[in-house]
Design a protein that fits this description.
The complex is a heterodimer of chains A (596) and B (447). With 596 residues, chain A is mostly helical. Chain A is built from 27 helices and eight strands. Chain A has helices at 2-22, 41-54, 63-83, 85-88, 102-115, 120-123, 125-144, 170-192, 196-215, 234-252, 258-263, 265-271, 278-300, 305-331, 352-359, 362-387, 390-393, 398-405, 418-448, 458-480, 482-485, 489-493, 496-507, 525-528, 536-540, 556-560, 575-578, and strands at residues 28-30, 60-62, 117-118, 452-453, 456-457, 511-515, 566-570, 593-594. In chain A, helix 3 (63-83) crosses helix 5 and helix 15 (352-359) crosses helix 16 (362-387). The termini of chain A are far apart. Chain B is 25% helix and 26% strand. Chain B has helices spanning 10-22, 43-47, 62-66, 126-136, 149-160, 181-193, 292-306, 380-388, 393-398, 414-425, 437-445; strands at 2-6, 26-31, 69-73, 76-80, 85-88, 93-95, 98-101, 105-107, 120-121, 142-145, 165-169, 197-200, 204-209, 215-220, 226-228, 231-234, 238-240, 256-258, 269-271, 276-278, 309-310, 319-324, 327-333, 343-349, 356-362, 368-374. Chain B is globular and about 75 Å long. The chains are: A mainly alpha (596), B alpha/beta (447). Chains A and B meet through helix 14, helix 24, strand 7 and strand 8 of A and helix 7, strand 21, strand 22, helix 8 and helix 11 of B.
Chain lengths: 596, 447
């Protein structure tokens, strides 16, 4: 019986996914008096002329074709304006404002896509909400809830037999990673019209590789234990690609997903009173996913109280702190603010617009500003001293929440090789350094008004951080690579806040994973299911307590251990001695008789 | 000096690693099973899809080269003890200055008719796993003969792939020659609840074969019942893998006989792990203990002795662990299947019968002698210290929280044990130390 319910759930979910994907092509967009929204009369005239010449004025054009067609029209209009700049420049208009800049064009397109659209989604947004969000949630829960009846215990049967969770071969993985990163860099070059930062990034990547391969001698440290030796899980590749494309559209081409945004409009209006943006869509999806997949975690770890409480915690913080409270704040005319998202993860916290917004929002805004600053200086180190970085990374954080719920089926794909660890240390601390430098520039600019510091333009540093780290790394690679490199790619290699928490955890914290004397049988379940790619077994089999900056304290190593070897705990004292290598040595010096 | 180790299991590998720590001697490990050391205990997880073979290797492949340990994948056909050389199956000869035999075990076969048919196998080697895999496709039933630790693993393996399993167990209750009655009953019930067809008090009569020549059914000795199946697992224990050494100058009994320094009868030859039979075992210990932990300890001890730092093999206080499908099991110290006259016991069981804590202590001295745990984790170091110092049951109970190694937020059961003890003895003990690391560290560092 429950098997049929699960199959029905799966069918509903797939149906929802199909509708979700297919609906992007629904409807049409009409460019007319009303939907043509531009900043200047001369732009309007030029675009009108070009649109009429192209024959798209006042004619509905299908959703998919419109953006390309309209981009062409704007480009032509811009060219036209460019050519008449000498003769027709109106009084008081700067020459560089006369033609249509790229960022303006983007705004014009997105405004028209919003206002000129018509189609089933615009007429029945809630119906589509139900057919996508609704069916996916119902289907997901139908699939998941019968699992509460399964026997309590570890549920990892068949993970490596399943095409979705098996992972891919090392060469294929490296190739996909390289293509994605190069793709982002090249796009960044065109988008920001700046070759300097893409080039700096490539140089840094080469430098890090040089250090890892040659200076730290890991030429031969192939990642055999973390990738599939010979098989490719194609379903995983498809899932990863889907997520990757989703993030690319979300960050860099939201006009193409206007139908999704339109569909959640009524919900946004209800919550905050404002129309939905792509970020509202993303927040809503994110929250739904964390909740549904959180229920899955609860079924999976029915026997494990630590996992149940921790999962409930990330579900709560995502729903309340990251989604509902900020929307409510907006409804109350207060700034959108996520109380648990701290700098440097929240990299724009010290941006001028944010500081200005907070300081101009009365005592609540000021309290938010002080809260954010105090958290960084006092709250985070103090909490981490007592509890380890897990209090944040696997109990509170939104990225962690998604990783621990949606990402759980892929946690075994994290790379456990020594080489990966070497890369990790360079990259994550590099991102932390970049975040600090970028913020120093921003604050320098804020307080002195100087826009060029050390010969570098503050705006370009900011936009490269936002583009490459904020969107490319944390979103596209960080989540798109869940089914290819495990669920903590961002947390492990990129998150500057995790790096900061990790430094505290490594050097000044009561948290450690204790190993249980000599009970380890080196089976490798702990290492395999460590999402951070820590080779837990390497410590456990030596009886060595584990203090690693990257450990997010998810507790899964302890859960999957068949012999009860690992325990996450906080305790005072004795860390240095107990993390010494080879504590399970069986022979003590006084037993030995040296033969002469 | 050239040290050659035959066998790359936990014993041989541990020995090699410790020799490397203690000296710069040349080390060679020879194994025909796999090039690199893998964790035998994790074989089941490969079949069940929890891990891949690669994941069961505790060291990355570059590790051996980096530590200057040479690996040879080959089979030793003969040993010339006089000339200190080995004959390999590829016709090469390897000279040694010191030789370590870490040959491991093989699955027991007790002369059952049909025991060597295709489709019949144990679970010890990588090759056993490959055979199971080969027969699993379309398999309608597997029969497992023997109810020890490997039997239950094999049952769980087939069960994970939804292949029906019948287990034939000689005893009247699962593993009751080792487990006390309560534990044995719990595990027996758990096996049945998991959907495994458990037959108690029966023996294998014979294994029959079908047209294809491979096993197609087993016949139960007592009842004559025929159970058709496509695979028969033989898991009635293991014995030292030394058949090929019989008749050589090396002294053997069931295993290779070694002294307290793990030396065999031949000069410069040592034997460790499953294949070693200790001539004078410590009190309460068996001459052959085919378990992971003793293999590891022997490997370490042997390395010292090879490097001229003489150390007697002393496995210390007994401990072991296992997992019966979803029930974790740990034991520390002396817990026998039937309570000896001089011992007394406190046994606590949860209502759902998924947890058990048992403590045995001496009736006269009140010294604690052992802990048995199901579904609960206890701290090895704390239990060991209590046992080594003969701590009294009252002392142990009042500080029992120190032993608790369950994950955070798990229910604590220490008070219930104290209540049981108080009810039994009329004492009024109270729990003084609850679960937590800081007190444990104080306790462990106090001399």
């Amino acid at each position: 019986m429950s098997k049929y319910i699960q199959i029905l759930g799966l069918i509903l979910f797939c149906l929802a996914l199909l509708i979700f994907t297919g609906m992007l092509g629904l409807g049409s967009i009409t460019l007319n008096e009303e939907s043509l929204q531009v900043d200047a009369e001369y732009h309007k005239n030029a675009i009108l002329a070009a649109a009429k010449a192209e024959g798209i004025y006042n004619t509905p054009v299908s959703n998919i074709k419109f953006i390309t067609a309209y981009s062409n029209v704007i480009a032509q209009a811009s060219k036209q304006l460019e050519s008449e700049i000498e003769t027709k420049l109106p009084e008081g208009v700067q020459p560089w404002d006369y033609a249509i800049a790229d960022w303006r064009a983007k705004n014009y397109i997105s405004a028209t896509v919003k206002t000129g659209a018509d189609g089933p989604v615009n007429r029945n947004p809630l119906l589509f909400c139900f057919l996508t969000f609704g069916l996916a949630i119902i289907g997901g829960l139908l699939y998941i809830i019968p699992k509460f009846n399964e026997p309590k215990g570890i549920k990892h049967d068949g993970i490596y037999h399943d095409s979705l969770t098996r992972g891919i071969t090392s060469n294929f993985r490296n190739a996909l990673l390289l293509i994605t990163i190069m793709g982002i860099l090249i796009y960044g070059f065109f988008k920001l019209q700046d070759y300097f930062w893409p080039l700096v990034t490539i140089c840094l990547a080469l430098l890090i590789s040089y250090f890892v391969f040659f200076r730290q001698d890991s030429k031969s440290n192939h990642p055999q234990r973390s990738v599939s030796p010979n098989r490719i899980g194609w379903l995983g590749v498809i899932a990863g690609t889907y997520m990757l494309i989703f993030y690319v559209l979300l960050y860099w081409a939201p006009s193409y997903i206007q139908n999704w945004i339109t569909m959640v409009n009524p919900i946004s209006e209800m919550l905050s009173g404002n129309p939905a943006s792509q970020w509202f869509l993303y927040g809503l999806m994110y929250t739904c996913i964390v909740i549904v997949m959180g229920v899955r975690m609860l079924t999976k770890y029915q026997h494990n109280t630590y996992q149940k409480i921790r999962t409930a915690s990330v579900m709560f913080f995502q729903t309340a702190f990251a989604f509902l409270i900020p929307e409510m704040l907006v409804r109350l005319n207060r700034p959108w603010f996520d109380f648990k998202n701290f700098w440097p993860l929240d990299y724009d916290f010290f941006y001028k617009y944010n500081i200005d917004q907070l300081t101009s929002s009365g005592s609540l805004g000021l309290a938010m500003l002080i809260w954010g600053i105090l958290a960084i200086i006092i709250g985070i180190p103090l909490m981490t001293y007592f509890l380890g970085k897990r209090w944040y990374c696997s109990w509170v954080c939104g990225c962690g929440g998604l990783a621990e719920t949606l990402g759980d089926p892929w946690r075994q794909l994290s790379d456990k090789s020594m080489r990966a660890w070497k890369y990790e240390r360079f990259i994550i601390h590099g991102v932390l350094a970049f975040a600090i430098i970028m913020t120093a520039f921003v604050l320098g600019h804020y307080f002195t008004g100087v826009s060029n510091i050390l010969g570098m333009n503050v705006e370009s540093v900011k936009s490269w951080y936002g583009f490459f780290i904020g969107a490319g790394f944390s979103g596209v690679v960080g989540t798109g690579f869940y089914p290819l490199m495990g669920n903590r790619v961002w947390c492990r290699f990129g998150c500057p806040l995790a790096a900061y928490l990790g430094l505290v955890q490594r050097f000044k914290s009561r948290f450690r994973i204790t190993t249980n004397g000599g009970q380890c049988i080196s089976c490798g379940n702990c290492s395999t299911y460590c999402e951070m790619g820590i080779d837990v077994r390497a410590y456990a089999q030596k009886g060595q307590d584990i203090v690693r900056s990257s450990c997010v304290g998810c507790g899964v190593c302890s859960a999957v251990c068949p012999r009860g070897v690992l325990r996450l705990e906080n305790g005072s004292g004795d860390i240095a001695q107990r993390t010494d290598a080879m504590r399970t040595i069986h022979i003590t010096e006084d037993q030995i008789q040296i033969l002469t | 000096m050239h040290i050659v180790i035959i066998g790359n299991g936990i014993s041989g590998t541990t020995c090699a690693r410790w020799v490397r720590k203690l000296s710069d001697d040349q080390i060679t490990i020879i194994s025909s099973e796999s090039k690199h050391f893998y964790s035998r205990t994790a074989l089941m997880y490969i079949y069940m899809g929890h891990m891949r073979f690669e994941d069961t290797k505790p060291y990355e492949d570059w590790f051996w080269d980096k530590n200057n340990i040479q690996l040879i994948q080959g089979h030793v056909d003969a040993i010339d003890f006089d000339n200190q050389s080995l004959q390999l199956n590829n016709n090469t000869t390897v000279k040694y200055d010191k030789l370590v035999l870490a040959l491991g075990s093989k699955s027991n076969k007790f002369g059952w008719p049909g025991q060597d048919l295709p489709g019949v196998g144990g679970l010890y080697h990588l090759q056993d796993l490959e055979q199971m895999e080969q027969y699993s496709d379309g398999l309608e039933r597997a029969v497992i003969v023997g109810g020890g630790l490997i039997g239950i693993e094999m049952a769980e393996m087939f069960h994970s792939r939804h292949i029906p399993v019948t287990m034939l167990v000689r005893e009247s209750s699962y593993w009751n020659n080792v487990l006390p009655p309560e534990e044995s009953a719990m595990v027996t019930q758990h096996i049945i609840d998991s959907g495994i067809d458990l037959r108690l008090g029966v023996n294998l009569g014979e294994i029959t074969s079908g047209k294809s020549g491979s096993a197609n059914a087993v016949i139960i000795k007592e009842t004559g019942e025929t159970i058709s199946c496509g695979y028969v697992g033989l898991t009635a224990g293991v014995s030292p893998n030394i058949g090929w050494l019989k008749g050589t100058d090396l002294q053997t009994n069931r295993g290779i006989l070694v002294d307290r320094y793990l030396r065999t009868s031949q000069k410069n030859v040592y034997a460790i792990g499953d294949c070693a039979e200790i001539q004078e075992p410590q009190q309460g210990r068996r001459p052959i203990e085919a378990i992971w932990y003793t293999g590891r300890m022997m490997g370490e001890t042997c390395a010292y002795n090879i490097c001229d730092k003489q150390v007697e093999y002393n496995p210390g206080i007994w401990f072991n662990s296992a997992k019966f499908i979803h029930l974790e099991y740990q034991v520390y110290g002396d817990i026998r299947s039937s309570l000896p006259e001089e011992h007394d016991a406190i046994v606590w069981q949860s209502k759902d019968m998924d947890k058990l804590i048992r403590i045995h202590y001496d009736k006269t001295t009140h010294a604690v002698v052992g802990f048995n745990l199901i579904g609960v984790r206890y701290r090895h170091e704390v239990c060991e210290k209590w046992l080594a110092t003969h701590a009294s049951i009252e002392d142990v109970l009042q500080h029992l929280g120190m032993a608790n190694f369950d994950p955070e937020f798990y229910k604590e059961h220490e008070e219930e044990l104290i209540r049981l003890y108080n009810a039994k003895t009329g004492n009024a003990l109270k729990l003084k130390t609850k679960r937590g690391l800081s007190k444990v560290l104080q306790f462990l560092t106090n001399a």
